């Protein structure tokens, strides 16, 4: 009942109220990002939403466009500035996602939207994380965020969508506020999921071959 009729209404109300109330902070962050990192100020990236429908995610930029002598972008860790780390640790870089929530691309609470090129690497169970709108925060985010293994993150995502209730969403939101005050796991994930899943397949094949030699 809540998921079908009230969750979206709450998303619209909260995101609209947040955008209006946060206008001064958004404008200030816009100026600071422009001065410290440059233009464009916003990071725009394609992400799969509900039913794997692709949408454009909005965030404040936290990385520069620094490149090597061959014109290739430097690794993420080298492009993430001190100011960018502050933005991420405080989750202020994610404030523009309230626009995504208002548009209906996202929800306040749900599995975090990941990059599209991960889609072919999900197993059948993991694909169900796209049965609902992705969230600004989620069960995985309040239980370790990037400190979690990929399996554990997806386990939390699937646990959340098994039964979505108002009380559970409120609990996650309050836990998120606490995590913002005392941030953890907000850096760059150590292992790309595509690479992680490919390594799993390779190890499985090696194990199979060694057992059949």
Q: How does the overall form come out from the CA principal axes?
A: globular
How large is the radius of gyration? 19 Å
Number of strands: 4
Lateral arrangement of strands in the main beta sheet: 1-2
Order of helices and strands: HHEEHHHEEHHH
- Strand percentage, roughly? 5-15%
* Mean pLDDT score: 86
List keywords for this structure.
213 residues, mainly alpha, two-stranded parallel ribbon, 4 strands, globular
Summarize the structure.
The protein has 213 residues and is mainly alpha-helical.
Question: Could you explain how this protein is built, in words?
Answer:
This protein has 213 residues and is mainly alpha-helical. It has one domain. It is 48% helix and 9% strand. It is built from 8 helices and 4 strands; from the N terminus they run ααββαααββααα. The chain has a two-stranded antiparallel ribbon. Strands 3-4 form a two-stranded parallel ribbon. Helix 1 crosses helix 5 (97-103). The longest helix has 20 residues, at 2-21. Mean pLDDT is 86; it is low at 205-212.
Ordered list of secondary-structure elements with their pairings:
Blueprint: H1 2-21, H2 23-36, E1 42-48, E2 54-60, H3 76-79, H4 82-90, H5 97-103, E3 107-109, E4 135-137, H6 150-162, H7 166-181, H8 193-211
Parallel strand pairs: 3-4
Antiparallel strand pairs: 1-2
Helix pairs in contact: 1-5
